[in-house]
Amino acid sequence: MCCHLETSDIINICIALATFLAAVIALFGEHWRKCLFQPKLTLKMKDELGELNKTVEGIDARYFHIVVANKTKESAHNACVLLTQLDESYEGNRRTLWKGEIPLKWMYHKVYHTFVRDIGSPQKCDLFMLTQKSLAIQVLFETGNLRTVWEKCDLYLMLSVKSDELMSKPITVRVIWDGKWSTDDGEMAKHLTVKQI
Fold first, then answer.
1. Which element (helix H / strand E) includes 78?
2. Longest C-alpha distance within the chain, in Å?
3. Secondary structure (DSSP) of 127-157
4. In this structure, are residues 103 and 179 in contact, taking their beta carbons and an 8 Å threshold?
5. Nearest-angstrom CA–CA distance, 104 and 127
6. pLDDT tens-digit map of 131-182
7. Using only C-alpha atoms, what is the Rg of the chain?
């Protein structure tokens, strides 16, 4: 016995299938799109000697930045770079001084008046500022249990970027500073080491 389909039956089957697919896409399409086209955020240390500039008060300073990049075309929304852990190397032993999540300042944060940004193209975040007197981690706000200013240091800063869509893979930046200062890059390199490890 052979099954024979009329043209109208084929059309009705196609309409039913299209309706079913439209319903599935309406229910799960956004979820699938987010899974397939989710942003991929990365963090990278920009410059090991920082950018020599002046503070608002006219003091020589080196500004160190983290670059947040998105490896996909899909924007990440409401992203902020977080300091998640601060360790110190003390007499050859590494010890944790602080753990949590505190946002860092975006470069030009006073212009944009926000601590979150949408990431499509690369954005710079302030990591720390170094002057003749101190190194200051550029957190958005101070907390009582997190030391952010150092006269000399051997620190490990653990960082991640968090957006509405995801939390990035963490990175660690090691900062070793003997407390000496110079505006000359060659001389400063003798006193300061900044590396993403």
1. strand 76-90
2. 94
3. EEEE-SS-EEE-BSS--TT---EESSEEEEE
4. no
5. 7
6. 999 999 999 988 888 999 999 999 999 999 999 999 999 999 999 999 999 9
7. 25
Contact 169, 160 (CB under 8 A): yes
CA angle 34, 39, 45 (to 5 degrees): 160
**CA dihedral sign, ordered 42, 47, 51, 57:** positive
> Please, what is the Cα angle at 170 between 30 and 87, to 5 degrees?
150
Q: pTM of this prediction?
A: 0.79
- Say if CB 103 and CB 159 are below 8 A apart: no
CA distance 91 to 71: 40
Backbone angles phi, psi at 27, to 5 degrees: -80, -40
CA atoms of 45 and 195, how far apart (whole Å): 8
- Other C-beta atoms closer than 10 Å to the C-beta of 159 total 22
Handedness of CA 183, 188, 191, 193 (dihedral sign): positive
- Angle subtended at Cα 140 by Cα 135 and Cα 141, rounded to the nearest 5 degrees: 90
The amino acid that residue 116 corresponds to is V
| Higher local confidence (pLDDT), 73 or 81 | 81
Q: If you count them, how many residues does the chain have?
A: 197
Tell me how far apart the alpha carbons of residues 56 and 33 are, in angstroms, rounded to a whole number: 45
